[in-house]
Design a protein that fits this description.
The structure is a single chain. This protein is of the alpha+beta class and 318 residues long. The protein is 47% helix and 14% strand. A five-stranded antiparallel sheet has the order 1-2-3-5-4, sandwiched between helices. Strands 6-8-9 form a three-stranded antiparallel sheet, covered by helices on one side. Strands 7-10 form a two-stranded antiparallel ribbon. Strand 2 and strand 3 form a beta hairpin. The chain is globular, with a radius of gyration of 20 Å. It starts with a helix and ends with a helix. 44% of the residues are buried.
């Protein structure tokens, strides 16, 4: 029996222990393609679907990859996913085993679609996403308390130690974001639990327009504007659209807060570039385009830092 077949058998046994499920009625198969580029999807944990042969009912299973230890706080991610389930803003969690790195969830398959940039042109969808993020932020702090600037330092050190392929100007990019981090130190904010990953493929949208947030692997306790910044930088290629979404959900346009969110989004690009470069150097999954993904995030970060508006935003943080 192959390793994959053995894993499927073990997962069948786990699903069979759920109320209303039985091993003889279960088909286990990969759920979605794993893509590091252009969109980071299914990378953190292998996605499986368990389906009842009798009636087609299904559940989604995420088995954390061994690479996750390089960049994911698994216990925190699982706790965040459970909170999102309880709040109704994430898939319903049916079983979670932190030690094994396996979570079994509601399968948002039929009647649901993965978020795309085109759907971010719909104000109602954007507003629902931002409302879900705000609701999650009302909970108690998560055990992880590292923000994006902390993680830039962590992943820069890890990528350098791994002799990862990095752009020639990476030290300059890191220094620029260190300068930004120093500017943020004097600002008042109340850290809250955040989703932490604005990738639009982490949004599921139903045919009726309901949204659910998935993939809580970057969840942490940080500035709520960090959460917003990671979403805005992913959802909107141009600043005017980001401003409109920000103002619509804040009730009024606060330039200083918007500038903070923008800087957080730029920092998020650098963080993900470093994560991609780290996995390109250390992951055994050499068929995934980790560095292609990293290169795009580095490019977008570089473009933003070189713009005069980067300095202007830093001067107008408060």
């Amino acid at each position: 029996m192959t390793e994959t077949a053995m894993e499927a058998t073990a997962l069948r046994d786990r699903v069979a222990s759920l109320p209303g499920w039985g091993a003889a009625d279960i088909v286990i198969e990969p759920a979605i393609p794993i893509l590091a580029s252009p969109s980071w999807r299914g990378v953190d944990g292998f996605p499986w679907r368990a389906t009842k042969k009798s009636n087609g009912e299904s559940v989604f299973i995420k088995v954390m990859d061994r690479d996750a230890e390089l960049y994911v706080d698994v216990p925190c991610a699982f706790e965040a996913a459970q909170r999102a389930s309880d709040l109704g803003i994430g898939p319903r969690v049916m079983s979670a085993d932190v030690r094994a790195g396996i979570v079994i969830m509601e399968d948002l398959n039929h009647g649901w679609r993965v978020g795309t940039l085109e759907r971010m042109l719909e104000p109602a969808i954007v507003d629902a996403v931002m409302a879900a993020r705000r609701l999650f932020q009302t909970g108690k702090p998560l055990p992880k308390r590292k923000g994006v600037f902390d993680e830039i330092e962590r992943f820069y050190a890890a990528a350098t130690s791994a002799k990862a392929q990095l752009p020639t100007d990476v030290e300059w990019l890191v220094e620029e974001l260190r300068f930004a981090a120093a500017a943020f130190e004097g600002l008042k904010n109340v850290p809250v639990p955040i989703h932490g990953d604005g990738n639009v493929s982490n949004i599921m949208i139903s045919d009726a327009g309901a949204v659910r947030l998935i993939d809580w692997d970057r969840a942490t306790t940080a500035d709520p504007l960090e959460d917003l910044g990671s979403f805005l930088v992913e959802a909107f290629a141009q600043e005017p659209e980001a401003r409109d979404a920000f103002a619509r959900n804040a009730g009024a346009f606060d330039a200083a807060a918007f500038n903070r969110a923008r800087i957080y989004g730029i920092a998020d690009d650098l963080r993900w570039g470093l994560i991609g470069a780290l996995l390109a150097a250390k992951s055994a999954r050499n068929t995934l385009e980790f560095y292609k993904f990293a290169s795009w995030r580095f490019v977008r970060c570089r473009m933003a830092v070189r713009e005069p508006r980067f300095g202007e935003a830093l001067r107008r943080l408060a």
